Amino acid sequence: MNANASTSLRTPAPMLWMALICALGLGGTLAFSCGAPFVAVAALAAVGLNRMEGLLTVLVAWLLNQLVGFAILGYPMEGMSLVWSTLIGAAMVAGFFAARLSVRLASPSGSAALAFATAFIVFQGAIFAAALVLGGAEAYTFETVGWVLALNGLAYAGLLALHFVLKAFVERSSSLTVPAA
Fold first, then answer.
1. Are 4 and 21 in contact (CB under 8 A)?
2. pTM of the full predicted structure?
3. Which domain holds residue 141?
């Protein structure tokens, strides 16, 4: 296990980071409905937060997605929609925990990329497996999965870059000494 990988990406402002990740999920839901950046949310929570903060962030982002979907975007209130809703939440949680594990096992320099790749594979694998059982696997075309990968990759890269800027700013600010009056 590589402790440096898991601590090198830890955010110095977890509440802000949690809010930004949830805002990404909410914005993605409003913009893309079911194409929200679920993988990016799971991976970002895995690389910047501890286990409880990350799990809470993933669950809140999922809950916001579902609230907006059912209350604003008109997701149908029927059994199959509720099943898929639950499966998406479970896949996000699975992607989060898999990404956390990959961060712990990776070298610090590759942990962020590995976390995203792991979250993507686990999330998409879980959703595809469910689609094989419940129906809908025909939607898994290279074009569709490529679009989901691109959307999540851009969201992940953008917020991860913001994470590093935030971390550098906080660390720089805390290293400045205030002269005595």
1. no
2. 0.84
3. 3-171
